[in-house]
Design goal:
The chain is α+β, with helices and mostly antiparallel strands. It is 37% helix and 10% strand. The chain has 24 helices and 18 strands. The chain has a five-stranded antiparallel beta sheet. The chain has a five-stranded mixed beta sheet with strand order 13-12-14-15-16. Helix 1 crosses helix 4, helix 15 runs antiparallel to helix 16 and helix 15 crosses helix 17. The longest helix has 20 residues. The radius of gyration is 36 Å and the shape is globular.
């Protein structure tokens, strides 16, 4: 038996007449828009069993049995899901193609069955368990009648180990429940129910099978909402709450309403607005956008109008635009959400808000305009930074052209300039750094939410501003004059100095060493003449100061010392090893030296520390700040 395509399953579901099929076993009488009869599952004598043609489902208000046409066959005749689909297909005359030989049962079928059994148990707990009185009171406080909410199959997970004990009595393997995300294992190995003391919302896949739960905590504690973990049957980023029931209504309306939470969906559906779905407590993902694209070309975002709600709205809008879904934004009144608004005023209160929904770009411009972002040059630049990401996200060429024209007209910036900005800075929209050589000055797109690059260290910046000057900028605050220090370079300077390694590539090769030129009288650091620019800093022994291979923004002659690098002359005094490591740790302590001015200290050279030799008296110039990087590293060699 081959797998049945989703399209065929939907065709069978749409073709099946639920009232006539269930009517073969149950005597149904029309009551308003529904049909009522005695429940065949618990042997009831009263008309507590409802068949709801509009929703394509049935529900018993006593035993809480519920489902669609396939669930009816599974519960009534003990079939598995594929067999139920084939039986209904035979009854309605839909041919299911056999694409190949039998491949065996779906290996995930035991997980589906375990979640379905757990769901039935949770639904019964909400209706019957005395501990669930708090959950029933909570629903009543939100204006949700338990009987009216029955077809939506809410449940309750009691505290303690009652769920685990009930599943054991039903013969379900704890390992299967762990894999389905119904149990959880603590660090000490103890296995406990994942949901405890929570009101549960069942989460269905597109076929209508329960694959997970969203639990609302009813007492103190965190987290307030808890979803099932990822499992072979449940993928949070690829599932939308209520899509299984809303997909046909979405097709009929040609649009989908996207709200934030479970209660928003429940309230709107109970009010008769059925083409509504919600992500599972997270930002809209690309997979969810693909799902919505399958059923409707347009989405209306009905989220909160506070700052957090607006951010979530525009993130979801950009994701939908990437999949060529047109997006409109409905503006909720201040302090309202869809649940509270419809609870007080019904569907009529929401109608004008949905009709007045604006295109996402028009909504963005409206908000920026009200806040005065188009009044000055600086604010206008920042306003464009917030509009450009939406243009970049738009895949529909006509829609993008319309957005470019609208933004150009409103901002006063030529359309060709905007087109060039959109085309040449896609990396900045994702928060990527600029090309090598731009350093911390690389531009970023503030509207895309990408991290801005850190500013360069002020010593490096001073050298970059005036690399030819021979005067050092002021050193770190609090540094005593006449003290030889080896300071760790700031993180921003170290990262800027090694762009290749920061990007995961191989470390750059160092330039070949040059022969040391003659040293002038007095042993001062000076620049050796080099073609086309200033020379390289020299220590008194004539050894070039060792530095990194590249520092963006500086010529090779102005490269700075990395971390605690020594000059080549200092390295000649000793070899690397444990003794050198121990000596390096002594560099953090200043040692008085008679050759220094009063109150001044010096640090011994690394080579002298290794060999036990006393440091030579330095000249006054050897303890001055380094001319190129005053706040990074001084020459540690006391020449």
């Amino acid at each position: 038996m081959s797998m049945i395509p989703d399209e065929i399953i939907e065709q069978v579901r749409d073709a099946a007449d639920l009232v006539s099929i269930i009517g073969e076993k149950v005597d149904l009488k029309r009551t308003g828009a529904d049909y009522r009869g005695a429940c065949p599952f618990h042997g009831g004598q009263h008309r507590n069993f409802a068949v709801i043609p509009k929703k394509g489902s049935f529900y018993c208000f006593v035993c809480k049995a519920a489902g669609d046409i396939f669930s009816w066959y599974m519960k009534q005749y003990g079939m598995d899901y594929p067999t139920a689909v084939r039986e209904v297909a035979k009854k309605v005359g839909v041919v299911i193609p056999e694409s190949g030989p039998r491949q065996g049962p779906d290996p995930r079928e035991p997980l589906f069955q375990a979640v379905a059994v757990a769901h039935d148990w949770f639904v019964r707990q909400l209706a019957e368990n005395p501990e669930a009185a708090g959950a029933r009171k909570y629903l009543a406080g939100r204006g949700i009648d338990l009987e009216a909410a029955g077809p939506y199959e809410l449940g309750y997970a009691p505290r303690g180990a009652a769920f685990q004990q009930a599943m054991t009595q039903l013969g379900l393997d704890p390992r299967l429940l762990l894999e389905a995300g119904l149990l959880a294992q603590r660090e000490d190995g103890t296995i406990i129910p994942r949901f405890r003391g929570r009101l549960l919302f069942p989460i269905h896949d597109l076929r209508g099978r329960v694959v997970g739960f969203g639990g609302r905590l009813l007492g103190p504690g965190e987290p307030k909402y808890l979803n099932s973990p990822e499992s072979p049957v449940f993928h949070k980023g690829g599932t939308l709450y209520n899509l299984h029931a809303a997909k046909n209504h979405i097709r009929k309306e040609g649009a989908v309403i996207l709200v934030e939470g479970y209660f928003d969906v429940l309230r709107l559906v109970m009010a008769g607005i059925e083409h509504v779905v919600a992500p599972l407590g997270t930002a809209l993902t690309a997979e969810q956008a693909v799902l919505l694209k399958r059923f409707a070309p347009q989405a209306v975002l009905l989220l909160d109008s506070d700052m957090a709600g607006l951010k979530a709205t525009f993130r979801a809008a950009d994701e939908l635009l990437r999949h060529e879904v047109r997006v409109r934004v409905a503006t909720m009144p201040e302090g309202e959400d869809p649940d509270t608004l419809v609870q007080r005023g019904g569907a009529e209160a929401l109608g004008p808000i949905l009709r007045d929904a604006l295109d996402v770009m028009e909504r963005k411009i409206q908000i920026l305009d009200r806040r005065g972002w188009f009044s000055g040059i600086e604010h206008r630049r920042e306003a464009l930074d917030r509009l450009l990401p939406t243009i970049r996200a738009t895949r529909d060429p006509i829609q993008r052209e319309l957005y470019l024209s609208l933004v150009s007209e409103r901002s006063g910036v030529d359309k060709k300039v905007l087109e060039h900005e959109v085309a040449t800075r896609p990396e900045a929209a994702r928060g990527a750094a600029g090309p090598p050589g731009r350093g911390a000055a690389a531009a970023t797109d503030r509207g895309a939410g990408g991290p801005a690059l850190r500013r360069p260290h002020r010593g490096a910046a001073a050298a970059a501003d005036d690399p030819e000057r021979g005067v050092a900028a002021p050193g770190p605050r609090g540094a005593a004059p006449g003290v030889v220090r080896v300071d760790r370079q700031p993180d921003a300077v170290r990262r800027a100095a090694r762009p290749e390694r920061a990007r995961g590539g191989a470390a750059p090769r160092r330039a070949p060493r040059r022969a040391a030129p003659a040293v002038g009288a007095g042993g001062r650091h000076r620049r050796a003449a080099r073609p086309g620019g200033a020379g390289q800093p020299l220590c008194r022994r004539g050894a070039p100061a060792r530095g990194p291979a590249r520092l963006p923004g500086l010529a090779p002659a102005q490269r700075t010392h990395p971390r605690r690098e020594r000059c080549r002359a200092a390295r000649a005094h000793g070899r690397e090893g444990p003794a050198g490591a121990r000596a390096a740790r002594t560099l953090s302590r200043g040692i008085p030296h008679p050759g220094l001015p009063a109150g001044a200290t010096q640090r011994p050279s690394l080579g002298s520390a290794r060999l036990g030799r006393a440091a030579e008296p330095p000249t006054q110039d050897s303890i001055t700040d380094h001319p190129l990087n005053p706040e990074a590293v001084r020459c540690t060699q006391i020449c």
